[in-house]
Fold this protein.
Amino acid sequence: MTLFSVRHITTYRYFREVAFGEHRLMFRPRDSFDQRLIGASLVTDPQPRQVRWIHDVFGNCVAIVDIFRSALTLRFESWITLDHTPQVGLDLKIDSAALNYPFSYDEEELPDLAPAMLRHYPDPNDEVGRWARQFIRHGRPTETGHLLMTLCYAIRESFSYSRRSEHGTQTPLETLLLRSGSCRDFALLMMEAARALGLAARFVTGYIYVPDRDGSTTLGGGATHAWCQIYLPGAGWVEFDPTNGIVGNRDLIRVAVSRDPSQAVPLSGSFDGEAADFDTMTVQVNVTTA
């Protein structure tokens, strides 16, 4: 087991004092067999009137913050500590019937998996689908694990990473054509590629531990990170991080899962003013081991 600590600071600055609407934060990790939350705290400046917690439709923990006074700066600082147990993705315990692609999901699971199997973005010429199908072997069996690992590594090796601070995600077709994107763009491309193959996929947001930020080849550290999960019978939801070519949960701290990236925004909210009143937003994330 590894003990991780995460400090996450987001600061908004404005040219004049503005009032704030409700803000929603996703920073509390999902407790599971491979990660156990030890502690979590949230400090907001200005001090909030109220912080309440809910579970969203996917079971993610969401903090809803009500801020009562105007200010030039809005700052959120969260701390989490958790035990993390690495799971080796290369040793997937897939049911024998699903070892080779294609395979069928169990009829009892299909109603729950169906929304995660549907493609969500326009692709009129099925370019994402054709790109995904090129990794299927012809004339001999295609191992399911090998197919998905190849998809993951193909994005890691053939696409250029570019950090983007603006909101939103490129469509999978845009990422495929540009051959570049952020971690959330790569996660969504792999999701839609898997869906084009008839597999269930979902989006994951969280953090990544980078052992050495200076000169590290692990990308996405220093900010929130994104990857995806694909459902495999017998193995369950398996983590795939196409930004870094990681299969399994090594160094990945899962905070929220969703059907689409728009449903797992780490921090969202509003202010009462003109668009020109907004100055800057800065994000700082530090992931360390004890």
Observations:
- The CA atoms of residues 170 and 185 lie 6 Å apart.
- The two ends are 11 Å apart (CA to CA).
- The chain has a mean pLDDT of 93.
